[in-house]
Specification:
The protein is α+β, with helices and mostly antiparallel strands. It has two helices and 13 strands. The protein is globular, with a radius of gyration of 22 Å.
């Protein structure tokens, strides 16, 4: 009887261990998305700091082209050019073409739009969104990250330009919502290693 009880107890402990491992594996597969930082100092001077794997700038980048295996899909957004040759530091510069400066551009929508990043593998990576209220329209926006966490951006943050960086895995969708002002805007999307 004692052996039977011991064997039964060992069997239950082994089964509990298997269940725990399965639960942990499911939790591992759904690691939380983490906001890694807000940067309002870099503004448009992103080269060398952001975009080591990929960089898409509204209008001036081909969003249909993959960069190092990463793809960007922009859903429900229009594009807009604020200024063709402005020297404002908030602009998101591209390499000059024929000596001309890069324009200040954005993706926008009067309500909301989505940015979907698809990586080439399941390794963690960083996604940075560059948001700026270039024409000072008192924009207040929300960015809903892949974990459905909402991050509100004040007029002070959007007016000066801000980079928001998350560490994510797998495909990641970011929803940009207008709260105040004419629309929600994003000027650049950058991909970097999670390190």
């Amino acid at each position: 009887m004692e052996r039977t009880m011991t064997a039964l107890l060992c069997g239950l402990l082994a089964w509990a261990s298997v269940l725990t491992q399965r639960t942990m594996s499911a939790e591992e597969a759904q690691k939380p998305v983490r906001l890694a930082g807000k940067d309002n100092a870099t503004v448009g001077k992103w080269k060398g700091k952001y975009g080591k794997k990929a960089a898409w700038i509204a209008i001036t980048s081909d969003t249909a082209a993959k960069q190092e295996g990463y793809a960007l899909e922009v859903k429900d957004a229009e594009t807009y050019t604020w200024s063709e040759n402005d020297k404002d530091d908030k602009r998101v510069p591209q390499p000059p073409k024929d000596g001309a400066d890069s324009p200040a551009t954005c993706w926008y929508n009067g309500d909301s739009f989505s940015l979907v990043v698809t990586p080439p593998d399941d390794k963690p990576y960083k996604v940075t969104l560059y948001v700026m209220d270039y024409d000072h329209q008192q924009r207040v926006m929300e960015v809903v990250d892949p974990a459905k966490q909402t991050h509100e951006l004040s007029t002070q943050e959007t007016d000066g330009g801000i980079c928001l960086t998350w560490i994510v895995e797998k495909a990641a969708t970011f929803e940009v919502r207008k709260k105040e002002g004419p629309n929600g805007v994003v000027s650049g999307v950058f991909i970097d290693p999670a390190e």
